[in-house]
Amino acid sequence: MANYNEDNDRIALQHFRKGRGPDKGSSFCRDRHRGNHRGGFGGSGLWSRLGINRDVTMSDSAQDSSSQQRYNPSGRESWKGDGRMDRDWRRGRGRGWRGSFRGRNRSQIGWFKITIPHGTKYDKKWLVPALQDICSIPYTPIQYHEDHNKVHFYVDNFITASALRKCSRKVTDCDGYKVEVYVNRSNPPNFLFPDLKVEELEHLKQCMSKRFDCSQQALDLKSIHTDPDLVSRDIKVVLNRKTNMEAVIKIIEGNIPQLTSLNLSHNCIQRLDELSELVTKVPHLKVLNLSHNDLKSEHELDKLKGLKLVELWLVRNPLCDLFKDPSSYVSAVRQKFPRLLKLDGNDLPPHIGFDVDTPTTLPPCKGSCFGSDDAKVYIQRFLQQYYSVYDSGDRQSLLGAYHDEALFSLTTPCNVQNPSGGSLREYFKDSRNLKRTKDSTMRFRLLKHTRLNVVALLNELPKTQHDITSFTVDVNAYTKTLLSFTVGGVFKEVVVDDKSKESIRAFSRVFITVPAVDSGLCIINDQLFIRMATTKEISRAFVAPVPPPSSSQVPTLTAPQQEVVSTFSLKSGMKLEWSLKCLQDNEWDLNKAAHIFTQLKTAGKIPDVAFMK
User: How far apart are CA 534 and CA 506, in angstroms?
Assistant: First the structure.
């Protein structure tokens, strides 16, 4: 077994800079002489060890004949390329590990990141030797470090990574817990790519200036790591490294922010995190070439969605192999770049859409829309009576408001839990949410039919108090035989004991009504939607004093009294509940109530919430 050496990272870096392999006495060479070659710094070349050679990328050439054919614009064998090695191993889909390396020297595949969950609770001097004792391949952990409660280190070849994966749950700590080992493909460790020095940055800047076409505002950085000006000075610019890509973007920002075309092909780029800065730093960029790189997921393109690209090249990236056909490939890319006219050199059909360059604001919300004064009188009288009974605690009296064959449905959002702690669970059990309820039998059962079933369900719902001043009404249809309108607002659930917490909800309700015998409205269809109230709605709820609900407040009014309330409300502009209170305070004397109203309004003593919107 090779013993763990604290200085291995430093020694490896020294050999890397000198361009030679390790000393003959190092663990790398000892293992090679023993027949356990682990991909030292010799072999197929320095760049293959650092992720620059295309061969280092895992492929999935050994596809089953029964597997579904994928669209492959690059014309090469499909790559796995999604970083799911450990999951595929556990699920028995080992092609990404074994089947794709036949005929290759697998020790040269690349770098792997080893993760030990909860590894920080273990002493490093115990954990590393414990794994070495049971690992079938001698190895040296590279760049051992802690991240929150996890421990990470790197190994530089497939065989070692495979052996470490088999060590998972085979080491038991002093508390009896099994040590888990997770293995994932990775970029080379950061210590192999130190930051560029000041003089190196200056040479990089000069190199980029030679590759810049001023007439086209185009910058060609294809295979920048092989540029003779950089190689001759032993300057290694690898764009799949964060520091190198950031240096390039900084030079672009400071010298050519008006850039319109950028070629980054043949640079083994795996992620686009740093390129996301192009959205703000190079706002005029129209053409981007990312072909012949190592982008494995279309989600990487989300990081560039702010760019207004008209031409994009992605051919010969692993992500291209994930699509079934050309149309799905084009559709997925175009969702991220709607203005795209060319993809991989192919013209695309014109895109139909709306481009909004400047931010827009929604118009302010307007108040109720009744359509006519007659509809307004009917609806206001109906809502006053209906919710006085609904909030009274005895909803049985609502039987007279519904038609014999009335229908009722209740819906709530799919997510009944509110992050702030509220819940709609009391309503969700009776909710006829079509996304949740897909069984046709259950859908029919949750649709309440006949007024007896409707009112029976309303009686089971929590006791409430509605803020009538928050109501807004929109009339959907108004004829001589039918009146349909939508009312929305807020209500709170009545606290029944000390343990209950007052909760404010928002609702939207569609009533479809027909004329009733007593010149009122009769409900034939009632659709109620309940959700959690927003912070803004809660701050505005119940700001004005509302008379306590009573089952005898409005229903006991005679027909002439109801007519007086409606007339006074129409002429004064006040809501029904305020008009009723004014008339009651003045002993139903219409002239006296009008005189008092005029005095109070002139003195500014009537709050704005008393008036209809």
Answer: 8
